[in-house]
Write the structure tokens for this entry.
Amino acid sequence: ISSWYFSRNALPYWCILAVDSLSIIIAGLLAIYLSMGGEALAVNFWHFLLLWTCSLPMFYVGMRIFHTYAGIFRYSSFADLLRVTCAVFLGIILTAVVFYVLGIRFSAGFPKFRVFLITFLLAMIFMWGIRIVVKYLYDTAVKDQATQNVYIFGVRDGGIALAKSMRNDNPRRYMVKGFISDQPNDVGRFI
């Protein structure tokens, strides 16, 4: 249990869950600020903070359905970012429905659509950013002692497939630092 919660080899789930929760709350508060102004946020700050904190279970439903915590620790990819987008979208829809059914309002009228749209966009951007930063930090900073730096000869499909295969090894044995090619037009290309 302790290795799952405090592992150095991967960022534990609870850390990402905590940062995602904080991202949703901050996105909601920023959306209220952008939509209704700073005065409305300042006057009702604790009310809005409580609303967004209470909405977290609706977002967790989306995160659970779309498995947003699968594969994000080391090899975040477009598929992971798409799952995050779907989870946040489902969460914001569920939050809007629950707020409407319970009669919860941000102001005198129905909860403003603009607040939900801005919250969705900001939360999605924050969560994407977190996953990209985690992947970048892992790839650049965390490296096992047994990991060897390698260069792959060939930049065609075979070389790229080999690099992808090495990247997905667990535990990682090789860190691809670059590609070698005998073709002059391939020199300096980013693959």
Summary: The chain has a mean pLDDT of 79. The CA atoms of residues 152 and 158 lie 10 Å apart. The two ends are 39 Å apart (CA to CA). The chain is about 60% helix and 5% strand.
